[in-house]
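Hey, sorry for the delay on this. The queue was backed up all week. Below are the sequences that define the complex (chains, strands and the ligand SMILES where applicable).
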Amino acid sequence: MKAVLVEKPGDENVLKIGEVAEPAIKPDEILIRVRAAGVNRADIMQRQGFYPPPPGASEIIGMECAGEVIAVGVAVAPGWKIGDRAMALIPGGGYAEKAAVHYGSAMKIPAALSFEEAAGIPEVFLTVFLNFFMLAGIKRGETGLIHGGGSGIGTASIPLLKAAGVRVIVTAGSDQKCEQCRKLGADVAINYKSGPFAAAVKATTDGRGVDVILDSIGGAYLAGNIESLAQGGRLVLIGLMNGTRAELDLAAVLRRHLKIFGSTLRMRPAAEKAQIVAAFLEQFGAALEAGRLRPQIYKVVSAADAPTAHRIMQASEHFGKIILKFD
Ligand SMILES: NC(=O)c1ccc[n+]([C@@H]2O[C@H](COP(=O)([O-])OP(=O)(O)OC[C@H]3O[C@@H](n4cnc5c(N)ncnc54)[C@H](OP(=O)(O)O)[C@@H]3O)[C@@H](O)[C@H]2O)c1
């Protein structure tokens, strides 16, 4: 089969289409004929040689895909059959014509969604659901803050939180992205290049702060995040785009009863991912099925043009998901 391969770690030009053996499915896996695969920030780190897949996972880049089921393992739960349209989370192997997927990490594609749209759902929607809802326990009437409102993660957070009755504040790096976030449903969008975000968050919450922050920036944002949290606030760290070290004001954590979580989705065992998928579908499956929840797609490019997809992401030109298409 054809796949997007990394000749050797490096810039986006090392991504080349090549031939590899088809994956063999295990008894609890389905085989998907991949029509589209989502591009994620972590793919860039993997291409550069900094983020290897978990042990046992495919070395091929790609953490999510969508397509048709072409084989079903003998231990797969009833309900999956050849011909089903499936979208799935995978620890690796999405940038390829075929991908073997644990059945618990797969979801049926709602009729309202194309393969390209479906490929933009698993990684970001499940990450947002896991961290805002399962870990931080965000509730109706609370306020959530997301850094990188125009990212895949940000553009999934906005509709999911709004659907759950949460007030949404985002930060983004340009006035244009802020405007796009507001159009998508964000109540407040802060251009972080115009001044410290924590002051703007305080101003828009009457000095109270927010209940939950989803942070993928890390080091340089820790002080501002702590300053932005309300009494009982929760900070969930999911990425480290701007540093791994920072000083923490423990007095603020103590006095305001704050909680800090760290979380990765990719490294979790298949059984945990199955629980996350099941809980996500229970809460949001009907809205997805009805087409009320959709991913924000920025661009669909041919798999052979993977270097262009990575170049766009590295430059942060995009608003929403970038998708690779396999013809
Ligand atoms: N832990 C997990 O399970 C998990 C799962 C999925 C994703 N993630 C993490 O979530 C983050 C977003 O992923 P994604 O695929 O949605 O990424 P993405 O679409 O590439 O978006 C990232 C956005 O962050 C902003 N950004 C980049 N560098 C920044 C910096 N130094 N300071 C402030 N903003 C910056 C840029 O937007 P602006 O133009 O607004 O600056 C960029 O568009 C990544 O860190 C990724 O590793 C973690």
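The pocket of NAP is lined by residues 40-42, 123-124, 127, 148, 150-153, 172-173, 177, 216-217, 238-239, 241-242, 263-265, 313, 316 (CB under 6 Å).

I'll add it to the shared folder too.

S.
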